[in-house]
Amino acid sequence: MSKIFLIGGNRGLGKSILSESMNHDYKIISMSRTNKNNDQISDITYIQGDATSKIDIEKNIENSSVVINSINVMRKNIFPWSKLTNSKTSISESAKNLVEVCNQKKISRIIVISAWGANETRKELKFGFRSLIKYSNLRYPYKDHEKQEKIIQNSGLNWTIIRPVALTNFGFTEKVKIYNKSHPKFRLIISRKSLARFIFKIINDKNFFKRSIVVSN
């Protein structure tokens, strides 16, 4: 049975990925800074560790064949100017450490979660939202997502960068739309459950290797 090393399974999308894993034949190692919010799903190994520590990753990744990184630069609440609760560089530091360890241990498959509006997709956002990112604490996760993307793209691994639109806890659908020139219009939300299911769908799909994609419901 293949093993997945998941970063950030204690909240948000990470928790949805853990729930979805029960529908698939994978063993999961979920590493988070704290496990207090986890529901402790059976058959999942919960590890307390910090992805910004290369030592913690090396110690816990074991013989995984797939890595999924879903951590973010977090705020105290959803208010855009709310105080940050972790490092401004949590995402890029974890990406750097994961790439180094994956190359050392010959783990080739990595999927990372970024955001619609990172790098070349910033121009697709409405002016008001671009301004909000620029002048609020939203700028820190976006800036770090962009750093992460460059690290992953230059990693030599079989990577996929997923840039979801706004994540919600409702509106689940099996169908996830991938934004491209053939499908220029998309909804501005995607449910965490929908995205989690999509992630498992593409894990072994070579059509998604070395691709950055925008996804929505």
Please name the defining characteristics of this protein:
single chain; 217 residues; alpha/beta; Rossmann fold; eight-stranded mixed beta sheet; two-stranded parallel sheet; 10 strands; 31% helix; 22% strand; globular
Approximate strand percentage: 15-25%
> What is the count of distinct domains?
1
Residue ranges: pLDDT <50 for 5 or more in a row?
Answer: none
Helix and strand element order: EHEEHEHEHHEEEEHE
- Coarse structural class: alpha/beta
- Based on CA atoms alone, the radius of gyration comes out at 16 Å
Strand order of the largest sheet: 3-2-1-4-5-6-10-8
Task: Indicate the CATH topology.
Answer: Rossmann fold
Q: Major sheet: size, sense and barrel closure? A: 8 strands, mixed
Mean pLDDT: 91
Quick one: CATH superfamily? NAD(P)-binding Rossmann-like Domain
Number of helices: 6
CATH class: Alpha Beta
**What is the second-level CATH architecture?**
3-Layer(aba) Sandwich
Would you mind describing this structure in some detail?
The mean pLDDT is 91. It is built from six helices and ten strands; from the N terminus they run E-H-E-E-H-E-H-E-H-H-E-E-E-E-H-E. The chain has a single domain, classed as NAD(P)-binding Rossmann-like Domain (Rossmann fold), CATH 3.40.50. The protein has 217 residues and is of the alpha/beta class. The chain has helices at residues 12-21, 54-60, 90-105, 127-135, 139-153, 192-202, and strands at 2-7, 26-32, 44-48, 66-69, 109-113, 158-164, 166-168, 177-178, 189-191, 211-216. Helix 1 crosses helix 6 (192-202) and helix 3 (90-105) packs parallel to helix 5.
